[in-house]
Fold this protein.
Amino acid sequence: MMTWPILLTVLSLLTILTYTLCVCIEIHGIPASLSVTFFRIRHPLRFQLTLVATAGLLLPGLLAAGAPHTSGLVMSASSGMMLIALAPNFRKPRQEIIHVIGAVMSLVSSQVWMVLNMYVCLWLWAVCVSAILVAMLFQKRKSLLQRFLGTRPLFWIEITSLVTTYASVLWRLIKL
């Protein structure tokens, strides 16, 4: 039986997945990061609406799936995404600080939540790092730094963070 937290979590996942796929199609490739898509898409408001919807829809699932002592991490991760949505233009000095704080809050809080509630998803980080290292072998650039940056590591870190978070939440909600 589909419960509200599961349904809302799936809607959140579909929201961020649809946005990411549409952006990759629109820009004809993989962006350097999801935040950079704010500058590369025709309607930048889509970026902000996607983050607000993703965080808002995921919140009930995170709260329902997590251990009681991890609810502060849930609020921090969701607040981080909201800060990114409020300050999407990280190229402006005032927004940059808010954007970076939001990104760090969201990434760190979601991954600490994942470790405390479903640590087996940590292996996905090994897959991410391995994939980046393998992709570096196929880069034609000369310097190690250029090869590393050519793999779009920030994008893959963001995607891995999303995958581990959604996998953890959905697994715990289905098992409850």
Remarks:
- The helical segments are 4-26, 37-40, 45-65, 71-86, 93-118, 123-137, 144-150, 153-175.
- Residues 67 and 117 are 7 Å apart (CA to CA).
- The chain has a mean pLDDT of 94.
- Residues 4-167+171-175 form one domain.
